[in-house]
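Subject: Tyrosine recombinase XerC structure
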Amino acid sequence: MPRPRSRVEINRDFMRALAPSGTFQEYADSALTGFTVRVTPAGAIQYNLRYRKPDGSFGRKRIGRWPEMSAAQARDAVRLELEQTPQKQDTPAVVEEKKRRRVESVRRAHGCPSLRTFLDADYVGYLEANDISTANANVIRSSFEDLLDRPLNELTPWVLESWKARTAKTGVKPKTIANKLHALQGLLRVAVKAGHLTDNPAKEVPRNGRADVVVRYLSADERERLYAAMTVREEANRDARHRTIAHRRMRKLPAPPSLRHVRYTDHLQPLVVTALHTGMRKGELLALEWADVDLEVRTIHVRRGTTKDDERRDIPITDELFECFTTWKPLAHRVYVFGNRETDARLTDFSNAWEALLEAAQIPNFRFHDCRHDYASKLVAAGVDLNRVRALLGHADLKTVLRYAHLAPDHLHEAIDRTFNAPRRESKRKRAPTAVALLDTPKKARVRAVRAS
């Protein structure tokens, strides 16, 4: 963030004299540190608080606009914000005190909303404004029914612990409970931003739902059977269309177009090929638009808001996937890569077609999500380092991809060999006398040398 150009006394006369110059202007008050005025090229004038956050980065808060707010009112508002805004020079005790003041100020002005009120209004609005899926809002609404009418400040760690214990007694698995608490933690994090809470109580609740993840991927034989089943399915669809055309023509009715010269008769094969060659999650695939697919640079741009961690990532397009997209695009929905042309919307479900395909290919216990595991497993087995695999999969933490580490070629034997065996062999090589040297030594010395080696 650039520093303000000059220090001035921000008062009524100064504000009246400001005029647009065609570029951004920023001025800092000479008396109150952090109090600034910013003028846009179009002439809009805004009061700001400029400060350094506890982590050392710069922050800026909008205070108000001129002339709706006078310079004196803005100065008072900046002083109040400084009393409630943690800064780099503050001690931990001061930071906690400022958080408490901010919460008290918000509660005096608006009161503390219930979980239901904050969920339905502020939180859903926040998700939509930031183009984030509202799925977590639905999870909270259905999972925390007995807490919805309690004020946010009553959702203490012990209240959440009690909810966890009650839910566990109903037979809900620990992993599911952990997922529900994770969804609530996201809402409470926004509540902290809004000033209703000083800290996120869900962070204090332990999660014991770390279930072991079975890494299921396709064997070479299963992959071959899957592709063969998709080819047979395409031909069956063509035959079915041909019979439909013949039947409708016999009844002198309009007939649909033939599929005889079309490589893909519907979305399923392109969808499966994309999943196997990108490792994208089901939700990411169904939200994928052609605008996100850059065939020129062979890259898929996975938009934030469609990803699980709300972070954009780029995935290179393989040769096979490039051929698939090139062929599929003229046949597909005009907006969505996997859209429903009848409803003019994106595809929402394909479970029946997927299950039928697996049955035809005789592949047991393979979920659609396992295509993601298959993608990661092939990368690791080819020697790609885990951090690159993490980036391609869109995981925030390297620990998540450690489940694939055992697939790296000879990763354990190589580590042991390099750490223990290689130094020992090198040491023995240096100690062992050469054959010529042994011949030149007396008999007893040769015996001792051989025994030592």
